Amino acid sequence: MTAGDLVGRSLFVTGGSSGIGRSMVEALAARGAAVVLAARSEERTRPVLDRIRREYPSSDVRWLQIDVADLESVRRAAGEYLGSGRPIDVLVNNAGIAGTNGLSPQGFDLTYATNHIGPFLLTNLLLPRIREASQGRIVNVASSAHFTAKQMDWSVLDRRTTPRRSGFPDYALTKLMNVLHAKELARRLAGTAVTTYAVHPGAVATNIWRSLPGLVQWFIKLFMLSNEQGAVPLLYCATAPELASQTGRYYDRSREIPSSPLAADDNLARELWIRTEAIVGA
What are phi and psi of 114, to 5 degrees? Predict the structure, then answer.
């Protein structure tokens, strides 16, 4: 990784205004990549852009407003970006949340809407542009938490009228979905120039835990990695030349390892795709 080695490459990163997403965007800009920070808040994103532009005056970084939990926001953002004609070499589905107690505008549990349903739709909408790249990549930020999910409960993808508190089992299930999504994408894109990756960045002290009580957040973050450390595996899967021929694999930090047996189930990956596609109306 050297300054300027990513000149000519364009990356689209969700949740790039804070946490490992912010650290990743800063590292990409330092290496000369063009980067889109796709995030909800311009107020929170502006300081990130200003800092990058001060340090790297020639950098090409910009904000795109999106709420990945809101399917209409996803459609609008994707349409706006595709309409700009700008390329995408790498899509990083980084935005995520845990411990929520709310519903998306379309009535889905907020954890599932943010971590799986919205990113699934965004990926499908941007895929034609990614396929135009000489070597496109899609990186799903997953988690080793997916190993704790022992069965798929399809009811979690149902629309609801009242919210419920989602806990760690829900977070783990969404991370299982992230791994299955990358696996099924790899199968469907076989023979193309697009490769996919699911990566566990480590237990990182990000604001993914922002829905938990403040004292709980403070305590668990004492034992976690920094955002800069957490960004390293994402950068590896997004940019490493040696991974250009690898696809559909699961990475723990920057090391490929087998995913859970459930995440390796081809039939489950296909069914998740079909069910989610029906949900988003793709």
Answer: -75, -40
Residue 119 to residue 101: CA distance in whole angstroms: 20
Tokens of 14: 């969700």
Torsion of Cα atoms, 135 then 19 then 116 then 257, to 10°: 60
Q: Which amino acid is at 59?
A: S
- The burial of 207, by beta-carbon neighbours within 10 Å (0-12 exposed, 13-18 middle, 19 or more buried), is given as middle
The DSSP call for residue 225 is B
pTM of the model: 0.91
pLDDT digits (tens, 9 = 90+) for 23-78: 899 999 999 999 999 999 999 999 999 999 999 999 999 999 999 999 999 999 99
Note the pLDDT tens digit of each residue in 112-151: 999 999 999 999 999 999 999 999 999 999 999 999 999 9
* SS3 assignment for 68-128: CCCHHHHHHHHHHHHHHCCCCCEEEECCCCCCCCCECCCCCEHHHHHHHHHHHHHHHHHHH
Q: What's the gap between Cα 27 and its chain centre?
A: 17
Per annotation, catalytic residue among 81, 171, 250, 251:
171
Annotation says 112 is catalytic: no
Full set of structural domains in the chain with CATH: 10-280 (3.40.50.720)
